[in-house]
Amino acid sequence: MKQFVFISIIIISFNGTGYSQNDSLKTNKDTLIIKGVKEVEINSSIKKKKSGRAALFSAILPGAGQVYNGKYWKVPIVYSALGSAAFFFQYNNKLYKKYLTGYQQRIEHEADSTVDETIFSKDIGTDVLLQYKNSSRRNRDLSAVIMLAVYGLNIIDAVVDAELSDFDVSDDLSLKISPEIIPLHGKIKKNTIGLTFCFNFK
Questions:
Q1: CA dihedral 160, 75, 94, 142 (to 10 degrees)
Q2: The pLDDT of residue 167
Q3: What does the angle CA 165 – CA 166 – CA 171 come to, to the nearest 5 degrees?
Q4: What burial letters (b/e) apply to 148-169, b meaning 16+ CB within 10 Å?
Q5: C-alpha–C-alpha distance, residues 174 and 195, integer Å
Q6: For position 164, what pLDDT does the model report?
Q7: What is the pLDDT of residue 189?
Q8: What is the mean pLDDT of each run of 10 residues along the chain (202 residues)?
Q9: Which of 161, 158, 147 is closest to 79 using CA atoms?
C-alpha cells in the first residue's frame, strides 16, 4: 500500500510539472522562445508569392516574374544576357549565310569554270571557306543555346525567389559576418586577418 501511495505521488508530481511547463510556454504562435533571452517576434505579415504565377509571368515575358517578386534590379541583368545572346546569334547567323553562299559559289565555279565568283576572291581557298562556314554555324548554334539557357534560368530564378519570398531575416535574429584582426598566440605583435561569424539574438 505504501508503495502504491509513493508511486501515485510521483505520477501526480510529474503531471503537475508537465502542466506547469505547458502554461509557461504559452505564447503567440509567431514568437520564438530562447532560454535566458527575451521573446523574439517573427514577422508573419510577409505575404508569400506564388511560384507558379512567377514562373508563368517569366515564361510569357522574361523579367516579369522578377518584377512580380519585387526584384526589379534583376530585370536589366536578364535583358542584358538575353540581348547579348541574341546579338551574337544574329551576327554569327549573317556570317554563316555569307560563308555558305561563298562556299556554294566556289563549288559551282569549280564544277563549271564559266560561273563567276561574286563574294570571295580566289585567294581564299575552298577549305578555308568551309572552315569559316562551319565555325560561324557552330557559334550561331552556341548563341542559341545560351539564349535558351538564360531564358530557362530567368524562370528558375523567379520560382526560387517566390518560394523564398516569406523567408524573413529579422534584425533581432541575424547572422553578421565581419573582418577582424586576430592576434596569434605565442607570437608577440603578430596578427592575422580573419572573419567573425556573430549570431545576434536581441
A1: -20
A2: 67
A3: 105
A4: eebbeebbebbbebbeebeeee
A5: 16
A6: 86
A7: 67
A8: 46 43 44 48 65 92 93 93 96 95 86 74 85 95 96 94 73 60 69 66 52
A9: 147
0.70 cut: is pTM over it? no
Spatial distance between the Cα atoms of 150 and 68, rounded to a whole number of angstroms? 18
Closest C-alpha to 122, from 130, 112, 110, 131: 110
Query: CA-to-CA distance for 81 and 147, rounded, in angstroms?
Result: 8
C-alpha cell belonging to residue 123: 585567294
The secondary structure of the chain as a DSSP string is -HHHHHHHHHHHHHHHHHHHHHHHT---TTEEEETTEEEEE----PPPPPHHHHHHHHHHSTTHHHHHTT-GGGHHHHHHHHHHHHHHHHHHHHHHHHHHHHHHHHHHHHH-TTSPP-SS-TTS-HHHHHHHHHHHHHHHHHHHHHHHHHHHHHHHHHHHHHHTTT----TTEEEEEEEEEEEPTTSTT-EEEEEEEEEEE-
With a CB cutoff of 8 Å and minimum separation 6, the contacts of 127 are none
Q: What pLDDT does 2 receive?
A: 46
Q: Scan for cell 510529474, then name that residue.
A: 14
Please report the pLDDT score of residue 49 as a whole number: 83
For 73, 84, 101, 119, the CA distances from 77, given in Å and listed in that order, are: 8, 11, 36, 39
Provide the pLDDT for residue 11. Answer: 45
